[in-house]
Every structure is written in structure tokens, then in C-alpha cells.
Amino acid sequence: MIPKNKIAYIRSLHDKTNRISDGVFLVEWRKCMLEFMNSDFEIVEWFFTEELVLQKQYKFPYQIVTIGELARMTTLTSNDAGILLVKMLDHRVSKIKKDELVLVLDKINDPGNLWTIIRTADWYGISQIICSPDTVDCYNTKVLMATMGSFIRVSIFYTDLDQYLSEIQWKIYWAYLNGESTHTKDFSARWGYLVIGSEAHGISANLKQYITDRVTIPRFGLAESLNAGVATAVILDRMMG
Amino acid sequence: MIPKNKIAYIRSLHDKTNRISDGVFLVEWRKCMLEFMNSDFEIVEWFFTEELVLQKQYKFPYQIVTIGELARMTTLTSNDAGILLVKMLDHRVSKIKKDELVLVLDKINDPGNLWTIIRTADWYGISQIICSPDTVDCYNTKVLMATMGSFIRVSIFYTDLDQYLSEIQWKIYWAYLNGESTHTKDFSARWGYLVIGSEAHGISANLKQYITDRVTIPRFGLAESLNAGVATAVILDRMMG
Known about the structure:
Two copies of one chain form a homodimer.
Chain A: H1 4-12, H2 16-22, E1 24-27, H3 30-37, E2 43-49, H4 50-55, E3 63-65, H5 67-73, E4 82-87, E5 101-105, H6 111-123, E6 128-131, H7 141-146, E7 155-158, H8 161-166, E8 172-181, E9 192-196, E10 213-216, H9 228-240
Parallel strand pairs in A: 2-3, 5-6, 5-9, 6-7, 8-9, 8-10
Antiparallel strand pairs in A: 1-4, 2-4
Helix pairs in contact in A: 6-9
């Protein structure tokens, strides 16, 4: 039986602020749980239903939860597998590797855009994404589920972009409406930073001073803009090949 | 005052089956309504709130609705503008123009993918999309709103793809995992058909016989697949330039 205060604690992690202050997030879907159990993420606690345990002899120090207890812990409307408490990665930006192409997201507030970008990054072999603090939280269950495994291969950092970019010596590309065509731009370096802003607002004014290269996806029709996830993919496809 | 049976009729159009049998759909959001009023779509009835009318002298034969009446007609949780009843386009496939690039969607069942693809098509100047009958309905309010104006520039047809493609003499490209690289493929013709299947199931087995060219987006990382909307955009970007 799971103590009431443990259930209350896990419920508190539904909230982004509590996740961040504790550095712990929830992993709840069977497929997702298996992915994290096979990853380098540090798992703090394991809660499995009898049903999940019956399928395989797990070596983890799990606790058994009933479906009733789980219903009070989970963010999902239906969960018959269990829940993991997982430690967030070390988000200090000093950990960012600088000799490769890094994605930078400024104020991307739609979860669908974020998970599309994480999957796309993983397709193109990008292993690091730096987000502004007001970009949507990557540790919410929807995002974790929708990235379909890419989450464990792509490291996501949240930091003040103004401060971070001010110290960068490499190229900083910005996907912008009036820049150089991505069809003719020379991307042979394949490293540096690619900054993506929100469709509605672009990037923050104070970041523009750090941009070295403005690039634009040529338009052949009349749409006002491309979805941020789509734009990221189209540019990465040109940068990589 | 709007008669009860009119309100009931409009409510019946929340349902896809009724929309299709009547050939009429609802346009409900202020921005969306203005776009359709400025388009070639044939509007059958106009329902405006006093508030909307106050902003401008409209020449249309509108009826005034109260917010209370509108609440019983709309699919939105909040609507202070009104509702339009709009005629669907003539969907006979004989209307499809054949001397340009046409997108073909097979079993795309996520509304988010459909609206992303419609906007992307509009960006790349694609004016026609043919969907399998089991692709998600483009006339639902969410899709209409999210296409942000592209809907009125891109014609969408629903038809049996097996029959339609069997009569095609042009190139039929398929976005597939083991085809020719989109980075080296010669797309100089810029016309023909590009078939996109669902991420989970690909395209229907019976359509494969019509494919003339299988194309693949090169992968540099480990993600299993790209989102269908993203894949469409990346391929169109290569086809167009």
C-alpha cells in the first residue's frame, strides 16, 4: 500500500513548478516507462501494477500499486502500468557540447511544436536543444509520450538565452522571414546554433544582436508562415545535406 | 430570433456525416469568418452577433443572433462573432487540375497533421490535396481555424485513391523509408503526385502498385520516423528548389 503522503507528493509533480524545484519528473505510460528503464536516466522510484510485473521479472526495487492508487497518482485518464519518478538531467549549460549543431528554441509554447522538434532533432542527429525558460516544459507527460523515444537521446536545457548566446563565438543562425535563402546558403560547417522563435512573435528583440546569419525558407505560395516544427525540419534538412 | 429547428439543423452540422450529406459546413471564428467572406466559397447563411455588425456595415443578408442562441449553435466554447453556413467545394475528382504537383494523403487521421499539411502546401504553392475517405475531415472547425487562411487557397478532395491513382499516367512519388534519397533525387519536373501515408501504417497495400518513385528523407540520427506533416514539408522543399 502506498502511503497517502507519497501519493500527495507524486500528485504535486503534476505541476511544473514542483517538478523543477525537486528536479524530478513522472514517466507514466508503459512504452515510455520501458524506454526510460533502458536509458541512462536515473530512476528514483518505481511503481508497477501487478499486471506489469506479471509480464516480466523486473530487477528494479519496485513497489506494487493498485489500479485505484495509481488513478490518484497518474496524469493519464487510463494507466494500467505504473509510474516512475525520474531525475531530470543536469541542466547546467556548462554541460552543453559546443562542437556540433545545437537547436535553440525561444518561446515555443505549443507542446505539439516541442515534441515535433525533439523527434525531428533526433532524426537529424541533433543531440542538444536549449530552450528559453518560457518555452513549454519538456517534462510534461504529453510531450514525453509524443516524442516516441527521442526524448532519451536528445538533451534539453532551459536557460536564459540572452546570457547564453552573448558568450557564443560560433555561427548563430536564425530562421527569419527576410534572410538568405536556405536553398543557396552554404551550410557546409554543420555546426553552430540554429535559433527558432515562435510563429506568432518571432524571437525576442534582445537576442537579435547575437545572430550572425539570417536564413529563410523560400516560399512558392501564399501562406503567411510555416509551423515552427515544420520550419525547423526543413532547415535542418538543408543544413545536413 | 432564430427558429428552434434552424438551431437544431446547425447543430446537426457538428457531425461530419451530416456535413457531407448536405454539402455544407460551419465557419465560426471571427478571423475565419472574415477569410471566408473574402473568398470564392459560396456562403449559404450568415449569422452575426450585434457586436460583429457594429464593427462594420456588412452588405451580406445576415441574421442577428444573440450570444445565447449562438452558444447553442457553435462548436466553440466561446464565440462572440457568429457563424456562417458555407457550401463545400465541388469535390468531383474530374475537377482536379493535372499539370501541377498534387499531394495525396492516405489515412492521415490526426487533425494536427492535416492542418500542418494544408498550411505547408500553401507555402509551397500546392493548390490541390486529394485525401482517402478515411483521412480526417478537413471541414471540422479545429482544422479550419488552424490552417490560418490557407484553407481557402488549397482545394481538398476526398475520393477512393485506388480508383483515382489507377488512371494516372504521371509520376507518383511515395514518401517511404527505403527509397531514393530526396537529397539526390532529380525533381526537376515539379509535377506529378506525392503520396503521404500515416506514420503508423504507411500507405494502403493496394496503392503500392501505382507508385513510380519511392523517395526517402536521409536520416542522420536515431528517430524511427518523422511526423507526417514534417515529412511532407521536407520533401516539398526538395521538390521545389
